[in-house]
Design the sequence.
């Protein structure tokens, strides 16, 4: 006879996924079709200088990807993160920067992939890491 569970499997699974997402060192954000944050884990919030709850409902391009490293405006229309769900074009990039709430930036490696539910794109999942240390080490080697 199977062991009894204190709550239905779906709740157990949801809790397990939540623990996984909160336990990784990679920033993870969910973005809806309007580009608004529907989820941000602690690592994402810490790297960007926000509380996770503050990010919810805000346009992620405006929060973290609005400007190129050289200071020029980064058009949302050319944003690879948004192209993942607007055009179905997943990406993995390590030659860009993301912006913190205090106005500073950091070199980042990020990926953006469409969230597909029953054949319909519902948004994107974005993962990212700060690659400042990697960049410094590469510069030292050259």
Sequence:
């Amino acid at each position: 006879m199977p062991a009894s569970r204190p709550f239905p499997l779906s709740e157990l699974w949801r809790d397990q996924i939540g623990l996984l997402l909160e336990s990784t060192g990679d920033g993870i954000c969910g973005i809806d079709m309007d580009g608004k944050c529907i989820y941000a884990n602690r690592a994402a919030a810490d790297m960007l200088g926000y509380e996770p709850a503050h990010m919810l409902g805000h346009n992620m391009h405006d929060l973290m990807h609005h400007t190129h490293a050289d200071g020029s405006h980064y058009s949302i229309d050319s944003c690879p993160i948004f192209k993942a769900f607007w055009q179905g074009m997943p990406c993995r990039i390590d030659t860009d920067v993301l912006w913190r709430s205090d106005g500073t930036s950091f070199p980042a490696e990020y990926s953006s992939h469409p969230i597909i539910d029953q054949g319909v794109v519902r948004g994107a999942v974005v993962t990212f890491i700060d690659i400042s240390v990697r960049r410094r080490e590469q510069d030292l080697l050259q």
Remarks:
- The first helix runs from residue 9 to 23.
- The mean pLDDT is 89.
- Residues 4 and 12 are 12 Å apart (CA to CA).
- The chain is about 35% helix and 30% strand.
